[in-house]
Amino acid sequence: MAREKGGFWVGFAVPFFYSIGWLTGRPRYQGREHLPARGGALLVGNHISHLDPIHTGTYVHSAGRVPRFLAKSSLWQVPVLGQVLRGSGQIPVYRDSADAQQSLAAGTQALADGKIVIIYPEGTITRDPDGWPMRSRTGVARMALASDVPVIPMVHWGTREVLNGYEKKFRPLPRTDVVLRAGDPVDLSAYRGRPLDAHILREVTDLIMGRVRELLAEVRDEDAPEEFYRRRPESEAGR
Questions:
Q1: pLDDT in tens, 44-93
Q2: What residues form the membrane-spanning segments (predicted)?
Q3: Looking at the domain that runs over 9-220, which CATH code has it been given?
Q4: pTM higher than 0.90
Q5: Contacts (Cβ under 8 Å, ≥6 apart) of 202
Q6: Which end of the chain has the least Cβ crowding within 10 Å, N or C?
Q7: Which residue in 135, 119, 14 sits closest to 72, CA to CA?
């Protein structure tokens, strides 16, 4: 199967992503057969470390696809990185602003155009002390229900041992196994075609993230908590 073409800026970024990925862990890729060889797919992941996008990017690229991330808009202001993000078709997320819906619309259009779009619905690295997913924003449900594409859960485990963003600890040595695993697409047939309201969006979000949590429990060989970790109260707008 021919590799999806990504253009100049994807080719420019690839050596850096693979090099950083190799330096920050021993990748253990599982479940790549769940990623379609062509056509759109929404890849929904947990978020435990700032290294996750590096490893997700190489995971998707090694399967012959080009990753398109939904990522915070401030990264587009970083010299060089901003040009790479623009040139490679990544999707800025404008949180708590009038442009927030544009991010979801751009992600939905990318799916319609046959791209693999990656979203971390928690919106930031988890604050759960044990590394389980937090209660997530509902934008993932909006995109999933607006698009007739597979919604694929995936998890990272091991990246937080290398880079812990909250504890400001970076331990590249000794090299740690970094597991990435994708699972079966989430069946959303019972929700398609129904009027969207806050209840449906929350239910679908929790269903998708529940699959992510179950997959993480398999990777960790542990029992998952029954409830999602809750951050301090915040507005549900744009979630």
A1: 999 999 999 999 999 999 999 999 999 888 899 998 899 999 999 999 98
A2: 6-25
A3: 3.40.1130.10
A4: yes
A5: 138, 141
A6: N
A7: 119
φ and ψ at 130, to 5 degrees? -100, 5
Q: How far is residue 85's CA from residue 69's CA, in Å, rounded to a whole number?
A: 9
Q: How many CA atoms lie within 13 A of 201 on its CB side?
A: 17
- pLDDT at residue 239 tops 60: no
Strand, coil or helix: 94: coil
Q: Mind spelling out the 3-state secondary structure of 175-197?
A: CCEEEEEECCCCCCCCCCCCCCC
- For every residue of 148-183, DSSP letters joined together read -S-EEEEEEESHHHHEETTTTEE--SS--EEEEEE-
In this prediction, residue 97 carries a pLDDT of 60
Nearest-angstrom CA–CA distance, 133 and 229: 7
Number of H helices, E strands in the chain: 7, 9
d(CA 67, CA 139): 19
Angstrom CA distances, 208 to 97, 100, 161, 184, 186, stand at 25, 21, 25, 11, 7
Q: Are 58 and 18 in contact (CB under 8 A)?
A: yes
- Alpha-carbon distance 170 to 51, whole Å? 11
Q: How far apart are CA 201 and CA 208, in angstroms?
A: 11
